[in-house]
Amino acid sequence: MLEQQAQEYWQQLTQAHSEASWLQQHQRSLLPVLGLSDFIARSCIQDLNVVARLLRQDELSAPHPDYQSQLNQLLEPLSDEDAVHEELRKYRRLQMVRLAWLDLTNQQSIEDSLQQVSLLADALITSAIDWCYNSLAERFGYPLQDGRRQPMLVIGMGKLGGAELNFSSDIDLIFCYPHLGETQGGKKTIENQQFFTKLGQKLIAALNQMTAQGQVFRVDMRLRPFGDSGPLAMHFAALEDYYQEQGREWERYAMVKGRVINAEGHFSQELGAILRPFVFRRYIDFSAIDALRNMKALISKEVRRRQLTDNIKLGAGGIREVEFIVQTFQLIRGGREQELQQPGLLNILPVLKERQYLQAEDADRLREAYLFLRKTEHCLQQFSDQQTQQLPVDELDQVRLSTVMGFDQFSEFKSALETHMAFIHEQFMELIGDEPENQNVEELSDLVDLWTLPLSDEEALPLLQDYLSANKSERFWQKLKSFAEEMRQRSMGKRGRETLDKLMPTMLQLVLESKQSEKLLERMTAVIKSICRRTTYLELLLENHSAMEQLVRLCSASPWIAEQITRFPILLDELLNSEHLYELTPLDGYVDELRLSMLRIPEQDLEAQMEALRQFKLSQQLKIAAADVTGVLPVMQVSDHLTFLAEAVIREVVLDAWQQMQARYGRPAGIEDNQLGFGVVAYGKLGGIELGYGSDLDLVFLHNCDSQQETDGAKAIESGNFYIKLAQRIMHLFNTKTASGDLYETDLRLRPSGNAGLLVCHIKGFAEYQEQEAWTWEHQALVRGRFVFGDTRLAEDFSRIRKQILCRERPVEQLREDVSSMREKMRDHLNKEQKEGDVFDLKQGRGGIADIEFLVQYWVLAYSTRYPALCEYSDNVRILRALETHKVISSDWVNVLTQAYLIYRNAGHQYTLAGQPAIDSSGSLQELQQQVSSIWEQVFGTRQSLNQ
């Protein structure tokens, strides 16, 4: 198979370069490597110079080159940025082909390979930044502070920082510089911050930009302080403030491998003094193990989400578990033992062995296993120069891998791999793992029989007598028997069926201890049906009793929660840590949490990004609901959390869409580097900070780009058209259905001209429409309008326009007629009350939520011209307080309307969680209805009958 592939590539090579007759004399040495790597073969076919350099100058047997010196010589005479980009890429390709050739023919060790790939990366980064720095300095002068030139230090993170870089890897970088100041000596003086931001952008383009020659590295800047929303480059003092005040545990782990790539001496030492206290605590820090447990849970969640069964990095016993073992010791003891502060894993293992933190034999086996995995990883990536850690399913790649790794059969290789990974996982679990809780088998024996034995009704019912009455036992047993029969018909595999048989008695015990066991059984069996083919989830519930208890508790409290978990089983991951489940994200923390969850998703993997957004929203919504059903959160705070969650998602979606559009079309003309020229306005429940479970988002998109010029990208379009495409992309990210459903239902009908209008409106056009064409009901909607994300200037313009419109003087009689008429039309169209029976539609019924909202909107439109403070807020409760403050309405009315509004909303939340429509039949709200309806009648003079 290898020979056949090699011959095919040889034919392509000789046909592509038929003039190179000298190739024939090298056929014997070329054929083996052509069969082993598509990357090497295609590179040779693409560029004959690669073959010539490697063979004619005998570079394969020569010592490794001085990458830095060679690159400096290549780049020094160049004055054109595009030429620099091309030279970097050609040099990278040549050297990577050389290294892959040596690796795949086993002419160098994996340790040497890791070091050489890292040294090459260092040289490429350093050469690129040096050239870009000098190029910028010609125009702006040098960035100075106290007369000294300031460098931009590039911190390499991850395996680059540890000098153990993958063959085909993205690189995680952080840019920083010593001090604020200004440039001097150029044609134009700018602040150091601007200089280093421009330098960072140029460096990223030099490395990341895709050309005909490919790219040097995929560059990921999301590990920098504040992630994508943070400055591209940060001065030392700001960096220190960030890590002291806001640094997260995961950032400590990441920074363990942080290494300055491009500078030595004084500035590197100064930076090290800043970062060291954050990463390495002075005391022995055993809290690192708890943090690692949480990170281990995140790994497990990622593995399950992506269904990674043969992943040598993320799977059990994979590369990441070795890294975590080593980093744990570094973080626990590194503050006191300087030798543990080195970034490279292979440098730390001997220290752990010497200090006897690991048994000598275990340390040696870990090293052996780690190198085996890294060699495997390099092979996988050298086949096609692609970043992958997944074992191949393709037979050719399986043969390639077995051959390079020294095995006759792929099965033999896999057996050796499994032995190494089993040992790693054993060590990993010894360090941070928890033993699953044992169940009392005797206590569950009746329920074991009930589930596992083919019992008749007469035999089964007595086993339930300790839990249920005779009637309830009969119904319960019939439901359980039907479920058991259905499970027997399902294809689950031996392991899945054995796990289910062990799990069910425990689940039945918890269900039978509930007061609503029959309904709870239906909800729990629905969950089991949804996960029965995913043995991992069954094992999660079996091995983690507290997770099972949490599941039963939440499904008992809310059928809505049960339905969410049934639809999206990945939410089961949230049950692993009960404290974490009820520990709500702070209102101002959703942006950071979402950024963290998106951190490791490749930017080019749009499908994974959309899925990650949906999973974040679902998991956070579950936590809010859990806090809600357990009484931890009052209604106002439930809505606050749901609202802030939605705003964080909107922010991420807009930024993702912006990056995708900018990559394709470039930036719109006339928009500053740190601006989008775009904003999102929320109406309705989101605008009023009153979001509920399952609420849709009423949005309006605005921009303030006045230029008619084209964008500056390779595929340029008119700048105004850019924003239409941006809005379309945002809607695509919201509405596309993935495995986790859509993100939010969105409604853009409140934009100017409704469905007939453009998806995004210029701020001036928005103002003109509101001033000249909008109907009264649109001004009512504007009362609840709120700017939720975008440029500060747009936010200020929207706020000014909103206030100007709401404060306009209006004929009160006409306003009263418009509002009252619109309310009746809405009630006729949307009221869900039945013609018969004493029921109350909380939203649209007379004296309900909509009546209160219309009253508030009427008062704002009628009195804001006299009291502009009435339009300061967009939520009804604070508007009611403002109406009281300015004596527009009485305190009695305010108290009635506020109390009714909060009670209705709380009831609405509970109906949603109970899986029921928000219609009350208890009659307990009738007094509030009558009070609200009475106020309506006094304001609008229209009698409302509750029986109508």
From TrEMBL:
<dbReference type="InterPro" id="IPR043519">
    <property type="entry name" value="NT_sf"/>
</dbReference>
<feature type="domain" description="PII-uridylyltransferase/Glutamine-synthetase adenylyltransferase">
    <location>
        <begin position="293"/>
        <end position="431"/>
    </location>
</feature>
<dbReference type="Pfam" id="PF03710">
    <property type="entry name" value="GlnE"/>
</dbReference>
<feature type="domain" description="Glutamate-ammonia ligase adenylyltransferase repeated">
    <location>
        <begin position="29"/>
        <end position="268"/>
    </location>
</feature>
<dbReference type="GO" id="GO:0008882">
    <property type="term" value="F:[glutamate-ammonia-ligase] adenylyltransferase activity"/>
</dbReference>
<protein>
    <recommendedName>
        <fullName>Bifunctional glutamine synthetase adenylyltransferase/adenylyl-removing enzyme</fullName>
        <ecNumber>2.7.7.89</ecNumber>
        <ecNumber>2.7.7.42</ecNumber>
    </recommendedName>
</protein>
<dbReference type="GO" id="GO:0005829">
    <property type="term" value="C:cytosol"/>
</dbReference>
<feature type="region of interest" description="Adenylyl removase">
    <location>
        <begin position="1"/>
        <end position="437"/>
    </location>
</feature>
<comment type="similarity">
    <text>Belongs to the GlnE family.</text>
</comment>
<keyword id="KW-0808">Transferase</keyword>
<comment type="function">
    <text>Involved in the regulation of glutamine synthetase GlnA, a key enzyme in the process to assimilate ammonia. When cellular nitrogen levels are high, the C-terminal adenylyl transferase (AT) inactivates GlnA by covalent transfer of an adenylyl group from ATP to specific tyrosine residue of GlnA, thus reducing its activity. Conversely, when nitrogen levels are low, the N-terminal adenylyl removase (AR) activates GlnA by removing the adenylyl group by phosphorolysis, increasing its activity.</text>
</comment>
<keyword id="KW-0067">ATP-binding</keyword>
<feature type="region of interest" description="Adenylyl transferase">
    <location>
        <begin position="445"/>
        <end position="948"/>
    </location>
</feature>
<keyword id="KW-0511">Multifunctional enzyme</keyword>
<dbReference type="GO" id="GO:0005524">
    <property type="term" value="F:ATP binding"/>
</dbReference>
<dbReference type="InterPro" id="IPR013546">
    <property type="entry name" value="PII_UdlTrfase/GS_AdlTrfase"/>
</dbReference>
<dbReference type="GO" id="GO:0000820">
    <property type="term" value="P:regulation of glutamine family amino acid metabolic process"/>
</dbReference>
<keyword id="KW-0547">Nucleotide-binding</keyword>
<feature type="domain" description="Glutamate-ammonia ligase adenylyltransferase repeated">
    <location>
        <begin position="549"/>
        <end position="800"/>
    </location>
</feature>
<dbReference type="InterPro" id="IPR005190">
    <property type="entry name" value="GlnE_rpt_dom"/>
</dbReference>
<keyword id="KW-0460">Magnesium</keyword>
<keyword id="KW-0548">Nucleotidyltransferase</keyword>
<feature type="domain" description="PII-uridylyltransferase/Glutamine-synthetase adenylyltransferase">
    <location>
        <begin position="821"/>
        <end position="909"/>
    </location>
</feature>
<dbReference type="Pfam" id="PF08335">
    <property type="entry name" value="GlnD_UR_UTase"/>
</dbReference>
<dbReference type="InterPro" id="IPR023057">
    <property type="entry name" value="GlnE"/>
</dbReference>
<dbReference type="GO" id="GO:0047388">
    <property type="term" value="F:[glutamine synthetase]-adenylyl-L-tyrosine phosphorylase activity"/>
</dbReference>
<dbReference type="GO" id="GO:0000287">
    <property type="term" value="F:magnesium ion binding"/>
</dbReference>
